[in-house]
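Budget justification note: compute hours in this period were largely spent on complex prediction jobs such as the one shown. Inputs:
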Amino acid sequence: MADHSIILEKTLTKLLGEKKYTSLRDILITMNPSDIASVFETLDEDRIPLLFRLLPKELAAETFVEMEPDNQELLIRGFSDSELKEIVDELYLDDAVDLVEEMPANVVRRILAQADPDTRKSINELLRYPENSAGSIMTTEYVTLRPAMTVGEAILRIRRTGVDKETIYTCYVTNNRSLVGLVTVKDLLLAEDDEIPVQNIMETHVISLNTMTDQEEAARMFAKYNFLAMPVVDTENRMVGIVTFDDAMDVMEEEATEDIEIMGGMSPSEKSYTRATVWDLFKQRIPWLLLLMVSATFTGMIITSFENALAAQVALTAFIPMLMDTGGNTGSQSSVTVIRSISLGELEFRDLPRVVWKEIRTAVLCGIVLAVVCFVKILLVDKLLLGNANITVWVDLVVSATLAITVLLAKAVGCTLPMVAKKLGFDPAVMASPFITTIVDAMSLLVYFGIAKALLGV
Amino acid sequence: MADHSIILEKTLTKLLGEKKYTSLRDILITMNPSDIASVFETLDEDRIPLLFRLLPKELAAETFVEMEPDNQELLIRGFSDSELKEIVDELYLDDAVDLVEEMPANVVRRILAQADPDTRKSINELLRYPENSAGSIMTTEYVTLRPAMTVGEAILRIRRTGVDKETIYTCYVTNNRSLVGLVTVKDLLLAEDDEIPVQNIMETHVISLNTMTDQEEAARMFAKYNFLAMPVVDTENRMVGIVTFDDAMDVMEEEATEDIEIMGGMSPSEKSYTRATVWDLFKQRIPWLLLLMVSATFTGMIITSFENALAAQVALTAFIPMLMDTGGNTGSQSSVTVIRSISLGELEFRDLPRVVWKEIRTAVLCGIVLAVVCFVKILLVDKLLLGNANITVWVDLVVSATLAITVLLAKAVGCTLPMVAKKLGFDPAVMASPFITTIVDAMSLLVYFGIAKALLGV
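Corresponding output:
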């Protein structure tokens, strides 16, 4: 795919240089809008408007939607009012709303000025829904049918009004704007008789979204039910829009990326890595690094307060990194698993006791195996093979026992914190590796020195 | 959703106890197959077959597909041959293949015995495609049209043959089994004249998958192009199947979960957390914990070899956890970002120099800010506020300088390793926090003691 686009980029640049516009157009119209947009990303800015103007109207609008915001802005600034109007007229409403949300105020004013009054009104209504709600990602362009229409009439209505709809395959049956059922084009086409009324074949138990449903929840419902589109209703069950599967896919991808970024100790970003500047990356990363660095003061304080113990048993220091890392790793395993399950809607707060119980049993298994392997490894490798005379069997025992207890604590903390965070209304993903590591570090050191005191008397 | 299912579970159990089968059936037929399957998960095993038999044939098959493998097996073992045949006949081919892949051998033999010979042949063919390939997730039930058919004839063909097809909305135009174009039902319905031949309105630049295309790549193409379905062709461009958007969504979700699990230092699992046993979790987690624990031997060796330095400057030990953690955190930030970008298809190996350059600049910014804040914090908090007399300005300088250099190294390693892993054919996700932490730990300690030797002369 990527190599293909390099060849294409070269060909297009060459043809542009030679002003072979007919050939250029011939190549472009064979391409998918999404691919044209990708190629535009790789071109010099001043070539984009020229190439864009070669596209036929519909393909131009479709390509425009797929472009990155900075290129969209570049194009709009170069458009005449009538060119802008042509594009805005071709856009689906949800895409127009996305565009308005991305553009600076003066560009937005121009876009709204060119939209026809109805579209302008709809855009303004959609803009009022909170970010990340089903209302904010829905479109109002769908096919409605009436219950008493026959199958034949329904098909005729789709043929007449379908051209501007985002999907025609799921049609919604409404009565006084109230959603009473849905019927698919498959149902209509496969109906035995064109004279049957729609209400006889429609599905009346419709699963719908509310305008305020979180977009993540909406995406989960798409993944669960495999719907092509879902109706969005307001609090009085009046149908106000639809969300289509492609929007749900985008949300799924975004939400997974967001979770992964937060789990990696970063603020989530809407920009892709390739588009993010160094400054963007810096802003996304530095707050967490600072917070976590400063909170490591506690581990420092713990070590300082046990300085005498460490001086008496110099071998103890060497195992601090291993104990901290294993604690951190085992804690992240639990937190990452639980965070993902929460994201997929599999776990709720009331599952906490069951989760803790499962994690504790897993921790006991992991802890025993790790402690035994660790004990043998220290004895054979560190003491005998590497000849570290400071390591006694008692030191080995302290390290291995600490390891077992740390694993237990780490898994308990790792599975609990994300669920508590969720309950308190925070993003559970915050409670992943970096945070868990900081907490587990302090715990493992306290356990380490506690056991060292008890067994070694330091 | 979940609370709703508790109420439903109670109602259904009550009605079952009272043997009110007509009411039970009336409730079930209003429900979505996916929801019925969820409710079944919560019921006692012996009640499932009874409830399942209340479902009408088609709903029964749809529900069956949504159920977890253990419940499917339970049902099949209770089915008579004719009951099993009814379900198998109703299944789409890709679902039948999934089922065969999940069931134990003796159950598979029964399923194949009940399938009609054509289905059996198709199942066996699909089973031959490698796991995770487009071939393995495709279905062979799609609508084909011939180029010379008119729009009217095409619609008639869909009405006649559509009932068993997984989707009718995208129809594929073939000539001697070779894929020559596609036409959507929307195109057909909105065509101005029923007499136009399909070849005049069909899209001829069809983006297709190969049977061997990786399913992750296939899912990415769905997310990019927003297709409802994509055709799958063999090496000779002969059409052999289609993949639909719902399969792509499942793959996206699975692949994101897999990446997150691997990044969290676990082997990926096909079972959801709620279904995984303690033993499953143990097996998924212990290999990585052991590997990482043993590899921490190196950090231990480094510390041991600098024991004298640590004894001379006791204050140095207290900052080891902070340096290691910050290094680990900053390295994971880079690795996680790069891993996700690779998964989304945004980065390739040839982008490595660009990525490293971006990360180094980000690292310089982060490193300077962290080092300055760290220097001031140690001076004000650790030395003045907590009164640690062992901390000199020189010690503070050693720690802060180490921090800056560690951040730089960690980001360079964090962004490079996933890309190198990908190039070498490994899963880049392996190069996330746990691994990066282990490597960065060793590096930061070496830098720490190196600088300490130079500046403090220990």
